[in-house]
Automatic annotation (TrEMBL):
Gene3D superfamilies reported for this sequence: 3.30.1490.70, DNA ligase/mRNA capping enzyme, Nucleic acid-binding proteins
Key word Cell division present: no
Record-given protein name: DNA ligase (ATP)
Keywords: Ligase
Record EC number: 6.5.1.1
Domain ATP-dependent DNA ligase family profile: 145-227
Family membership noted in the UniProt record: Belongs to the ATP-dependent DNA ligase family.
Pfam family, any one: DNA_ligase_A_C
Length: 346
């Protein structure tokens, strides 16, 4: 008996997949009972806003602090893609196994991979450690998927279905699931009270979504994010060497993007442990640069400049009048495959 053909991998040579615009159906042709399953869908991204929208047209969810991923399930074959389109299936074995047990033939689930701390809150640093740090090769068995959208379900592309309809199918799919794939619950109530409660519990913020919106790729305003504490990605351009600090790193020097150039935005000297500092020092010493990659007029001494290749996730409270980060704290390094966007200065 001839062997059935093996499913083709979604990725070749670890290059990120790119989604393609769907062609409208030809009205002269009969309507097919099933929709072709997309190899990849560019994610819908939330637009940052200073205030939470209120009213019956909005749905609220907690903003989770982790890695955005899409889980593709097709007849028992699972692929887990990062926001940048890279295949990380092998790095999330628990999520892969949970997807195979969902009891559906095909689905594309959108969500956030996180690691929860002892109090049940997502911890980005713990997620990074479970993956072996930036460039690490570890498989994160501790990660779970908090699923918040369903794009393809049982042979049907449902991206044009309003959010409330997609949530209905997602909730039915994940009913009673408490393993490595869990539903990101809708939070009912006044949006302002929800945001206040999220901040009191040490969470990153709230996502507001238009209930009647289809799933549209890009940052178009259907989803809005309101943060309790600012957190963005910055490029590391050097470090201040200190004999008394852990692993010799007194602070990291950071830059944001301004057009085609980098602009210095201050430093961060808290948030990393002895172990993290040691790992950082090893990476930084391999990319030293004789020339500073940014214009610098500060008073710091013993600065070691590095090539602008490492992207750090930084939590901060505000900006100073001269364009520097206030009360900055290091959270971890972003992966290139995570498609992290470096903060852009207007």
């Amino acid at each position: 008996m001839a062997k059935s053909p093996r499913p083709k991998p979604l990725l070749a040579d670890d290059k990120p997949l790119r989604s393609r615009a769907r062609k409208p159906r030809d009205p002269s042709q009969p309507k097919l009972p099933l929709d072709p399953m997309p190899a990849r869908v560019e994610p819908c991204l939330a637009l940052l806003k200073p205030r939470l929208p209120v009213g019956p047209d909005w749905l609220y969810e907690i903003k989770w602090d982790g890695y955005r991923i899409a889980v593709h399930l097709n007849n028992g074959n699972v692929r887990i893609l990062t926001r940048g389109g890279h295949d990380w299936t092998h790095r999330f074995p628990a999520i892969e196994d949970a997807a195979k047990r969902l009891g559906v033939g095909s689905a594309i689930i959108d969500g956030e991979a996180v690691v929860l701390d002892e109090e049940g809150r997502p911890n980005f640093g713990m997620l990074q450690q479970s993956l072996g740090g930036r460039g690490g090769k570890l498989n994160s068995g501790a990660s779970i998927l908090l699923a918040f959208d369903l794009l393809y379900f049982d042979g049907h592309d449902i991206r044009e279905t309003p959010l409330t309809g997609r949530r209905f199918f997602l909730e039915s799919l994940l009913k009673n699931e408490q393993g490595a794939i869990r539903l990101s619950e809708e939070v009912e109530g006044d949006g302002r009270s929800i945001l206040s409660a999220a901040c009191e519990h040490g969470l990153e913020g709230v996502i507001a979504k238009r209930k009647d919106s289809p799933y549209r790729s890009g940052r178009l305003g259907d989803w809005l994010k309101i943060k309790c504490v600012q957190s963005d990605s910055f490029i590391v351009v050097g470090y201040e060497h200190s004999l008394s600090a852990r692993s010799g790193i007194g602070s990291l020097l950071l830059a944001a993007r301004k057009g085609a150039d980098w602009v210095y935005v201050g430093s961060v000297g808290t948030g990393f442990s002895e172990r993290t500092a040691e790992q950082l020092r090893k990476m930084l010493d391999t990319i030293k640069s004789k020339k500073p990659p940014v214009a610098y007029a500060g008073q710091r001494k013993n600065i070691v400049w590095v090539q602008p290749t490492l992207i750090a996730e930084i939590e901060y409270r505000a900006w100073t009048n001269d364009g520097k980060l206030r009360h900055a704290s290091y959270k971890g390094l972003r992966e290139i495959q995570d498609n992290a966007a470096v903060y852009e200065v207007e």
